[in-house]
Design goal:
With about 850 residues, the chain is mainly α. About 50% of the residues lie in helices and about 5% in strands. The protein has a domain of about 180 residues. The strands form two sheets. Strands 4-6-5-9-7-8 form a six-stranded mixed β-sheet. It has a three-stranded antiparallel β-sheet with strand order 1-3-2. A hairpin with a 4-residue loop joins β5 and β6. The chain binds a DNA duplex (15 and 15 nucleotides) through α8 and α14. Pfam families: WHD_E2F_TDP. This is Transcription factor E2F8. InterPro entries: E2F, E2F_WHTH_DNA-bd_dom, WH-like_DNA-bd_sf, WH_DNA-bd_sf.
DNA sequence: ATCTCCCGCCATATG
DNA sequence: CATATGGCGGGAGAT
């Protein structure tokens, strides 16, 4: 019986504490029995206590535990008791919530820096984690799987994962968004909603067929895991079809957010769509339930990552659980050109900006032997064309994707959904990029004076198992390693802050297209920035163990932007333009200084340089490449029209710049590091690609040509139309006038993780002040959701436009069906 | 009662 | 074969 359990919990812990040797708690709690090997040291007990008490304390203490004394233990105990007392007489500990995946995930995340520097690659050992976090292994898998879907971690081998942190996030999100668009999720969503709607009226409309057909057509039966250039799944082995669930489900779930306009997705809809993809119209109820369960699991993790937040949408039916995207905005996918630097932080600029197509590569080549997923710039082109073709095909009214069914694990021949190109391996880039100088620069820049902080004790200097790249890393890496959370990472975050000054136009964006350009004086700036950041943090910083945590940085932009967001629009653009110009100059200047961050994925070409002697070759080539690239990426960012090709050529960017970039680029993925040597020539498709530079050029040109003038102005057409939409939440300015619309959104802005909210116990020094903040903004906002936007008729192929163009297009053909009211309430 | 979602059995995959 | 992974769904807290 559970009841006894609860009460006993506390006492149990206490007891256990003093009996190091004895079998822990054999009493009520089952969990205890399980841990066989674990030596129940006072410390471990302490940990438990702490964890029970509050996350913050726990994580903080956890690290320091190395040399605890009995005194400490007692103290901890004390605290715990106090918490208990102060709180509620005993309704405490092992409550279900304390075991929630969300909380667990937080603990997990607390162990690693959001933006680990290249030097601090952390490895995750599941055994350690499970032990330290006191959880069943199974749970960790849940977390890791979701993280994997976001490319925040990747599996190395049994029991081993690498932590990438959020570096890849922007890239991933963009890729996901793109895939989501290609999958026409929007339509699917609308479909479902429409269906519901119809159901209301007609007792049992025979819409089935309609829906079935439409849905069926649009649904992709298969949708392999979306990969990123540098983060493929380790080992082809991992390719089994089983790679379906959590991982993929998670990605799909995220996609839904990214594509839907009010960025709110109800579980119900999500579940239906996800099911739909797996099997046609399966009205299986139990299946639905299961799906929902999984979605909750995923949602919990995503919530911990603060990518989404739980809300409730209230419609006619009643209120349904839903989630709202609170993560970084993802720039509108401008068709293939994806050059925009979506970077959140300068740290990752590079990675994110990699051309979209690349993102989309999937890992479908199971059977094919190892097949390095080396991506060639030349390939990109190819891919692109393929993609286009595919789209066209897909666009066919009927069932586009079906083909791919077989695709699942067979032929590379069929590019199933998106181009599954071998990706340029990030590692490669990394590998080459890592030059001693770079490293040094890096080190220097991020105030080496790390904050004195207890850090993950272990950090087992991993012996790089993998060949090439690792080696290079390691050799160089000795440097930094200050503190995971401190130094290096900071520099990175900072940029974004600067960024918004410039890029204000998109308020909620965490990842602004950063003004990479203006980053010139990194060093000096960095220090400044840091200060800034810290100050700002004060307000709503999460009471995590590490105050310094990057998270703060993320949130920053929002706040700032809020204040002046609107007017900034204009200005920002102007500024951006200026920046652009500046950038060029600065680039030159900064040669010595370095640390110029280049946003874009334009690095791709660089890859080629990989082969041969890293340094020299790369520089030369890079320089060339960069020149080409440079204009390209800049334009998207700024919203300016792409420069003429001629200019592209002319622009010379010193090789140096590149270097820095690279660093940032490849924060992670040691694993990959495929073949450095033959990367260029590599494999299959290479044939079509003559030489890198030329191909790159072509690529570029193509893009330019392809890019319609309108496209580049991301400015979110959607937002304009629907002011209150996604971003409405936090922006005070918007709230006022939004009332014209029908629905209401009650926003209860609570920055805190939901679980933290109610708990008085949590209030530690940190948390104490918190509660107050969240409450204030309870202003109702109006949001109207365009549920039924349909791009053309049911059969009209939206293919071309929709897919490639993104939002704008979609909205054009929009057919607004009765807008429904919906009320979104948080919590 | 409904919403959440933890727990852990057990099928698979991996080594 | 022993383990590591990870579907999956019962069923119990939380509301």
């Amino acid at each position: 019986l559970k009841t006894p359990l609860k009460q006993a919990a506390t006492s149990q812990l206490v007891l256990t504490e003093r009996q190091p040797d004895c079998q822990p708690l054999s009493t009520p709690p089952k969990p205890q029995d399980t841990p066989p090997a674990e030596p129940w040291t006072p410390t471990s007990n302490l940990k438990m206590l702490i964890s029970a008490a509050s996350p913050e304390i726990r994580s903080r203490e956890q690290r320091k535990q190395l040399s605890d004394t009995s005194a400490e233990v007692l103290q901890a105990k004390h605290c715990l008791q106090e918490h208990l007392l102060g709180d509620e007489y005993e309704k405490s500990q092992p409550s279900r919530k304390e075991k929630s995946l969300g909380l667990l995930c937080h603990k997990f995340l607390a162990r690693y820096p959001d933006y680990p520097s290249a030097a601090q690659k952390s490895y995750i050992c599941l055994d350690e984690v499970t032990e330290e976090l006191h959880v069943e292994r199974r749970r960790i898998y849940d977390i890791v799987n979701v993280l994997e879907s976001l490319h925040m971690v990747s599996r190395l081998a049994r029991n081993r994962y690498i932590w990438h942190g959020r570096h890849n996030l922007p890239q991933t999100l963009q890729a996901l968004k793109r895939v989501g668009e290609e999958n026409k999720y929007i339509q699917q969503i609308q479909m479902i909603k429409k269906r519901e709607y119809e159901h209301e009226f007609e007792p049992d409309g025979e819409k089935k067929e309609e829906m079935a057909s439409s849905l069926g057509s649009s649904e992709q039966s298969e949708m392999p895991f979306v990969e990123l250039p540098g983060v493929e799944f380790r080992a082809a082995s991992v390719n089994g079809r089983k790679y379906k669930s959590l991982r993929v489900m998670s990605q799909k779930f995220v996609m839904l957010f990214l594509v839907s306009t009010p960025q709110i997705v109800s579980l119900e809809v999500a579940a239906k769509i996800l099911i739909g993809e797996d099997q046609l119209e399966d009205l299986d109820k139990s299946k639905f339930k299961t799906k929902i369960r999984r979605l909750y699991d995923i949602a919990n993790v995503l919530s911990s990552l603060k990518l989404i937040k739980k809300v409730h949408v209230t419609e006619e039916r009643g209120r349904k659980p839903a989630f709202k995207w609170t993560g970084p905005e993802v720039l509108p996918n401008i068709q293939d050109t994806k050059l925009e630097a979506t970077s959140t932080t300068c740290s990752s600029p590079i990675s994110e900006s990699i051309p979209s197509k690349e993102h989309c590569s999937k890992n479908l080549f199971p059977s094919k032997g190892k097949q390095n997923f080396t991506r060639h710039s030349s390939l990109i082109k190819l891919v692109k064309s393929i993609e286009n073709d595919r789209r066209k095909i897909q666009s066919a009214p009927t069932s586009p994707v079906k083909i791919s069914t077989s695709t699942y694990q067979s032929l590379p021949v069929f590019p199933s959904t998106i181009a599954q190109l071998p990706a340029i391996t990030k590692p490669q880039l990394e590998g080459q990029s890592k030059t001693a100088e770079e490293m040094q620069m890096k080190c220097a820049l991020p105030s080496a004076e790390a904050v004195p902080k207890a850090e993950p004790s272990e950090q087992p200097a991993p012996s790089q198992p993998l060949g090439v790249s690792p080696a290079s890393h390691s050799s160089v890496s000795p440097v930094i390693l200050p503190h995971p959370h401190s130094g290096v990472s900071y520099a990175i975050y900072l940029h974004p802050s600067q960024a918004h000054t410039v890029t204000t136009y998109s308020p909620g964006f965490m990842l602004q297209p950063l003004p990479c350009a203006n980053v010139t004086g990194v060093k000096s700036n960095s220090s400044k920035v840091i200060n800034k950041t810290t100050t700002e943090e004060g307000d709503n910083q999460i009471a995590t163990a590490e105050p310094t945590k990057p998270l703060a940085a993320e949130e920053r932009p929002e706040m700032k932007s809020e204040t002046s967001s609107q007017r900034c629009l204009k200005r920002s653009q102007a500024l951006q333009e200026n920046n652009l110009i500046k950038r060029h100059r600065s680039d030159e200047e900064s040669l010595g200084t370095s640390l110029t961050f280049f946003p874009s994925g334009y690095l791709i070409p660089l890859t080629h340089c990989t082969h041969g002697n890293k340094a020299d070759c790369s520089n030369k080539e890079k320089a060339g490449m960069c020149s080409l690239q440079h204009p390209t990426y800049s334009s998207p960012v700024t919203g300016v029209i792409p420069m003429p090709a001629s200019e592209l050529k002319t622009v010379n960017i010193p090789a140096f710049h590149i270097t820095p970039l690279n660093i940032m680029l490849s924060p992670n993925s040691i694993a990959a590091a495929p073949v450095l040597s033959n990367s260029c020539l590599n494999s299959s498709n290479a044939s079509s690609a003559p030489n890198p530079s030329s191909s790159a050029l072509n690529f570029m040109l193509q893009h330019i040509g392809l890019i319609p003038a309108g496209v580049q102005v991301p400015a979110n057409p959607v937002l304009q139309h629907v002011p209150a939409s996604s971003q409405a939440e936090n922006s005070s300015h918007s709230s006022g006038n939004t009332n014209l619309q029908e629905g209401k959104v009650r926003t209860n802005t609570a920055p805190w993780p939901w679980w933290v909210e109610g708990e008085g116990q949590c209030s530690d020094s940190f948390t104490a002040g918190k509660p107050s903040a969240p409450k204030e903004p309870q202003e109702p906002q109006a949001v109207t959701e365009n549920f039924f936007r349909t791009p053309g008729g049911p059969n009209s192929g939206f293919s071309l436009s929709a897919t490639s163009e993104g939002p704008e297009r979609t909205s054009q053909g929009t057919l607004n069906i009765p807008q429904r009211k919906l009320e979104v309430s948080e919590d």
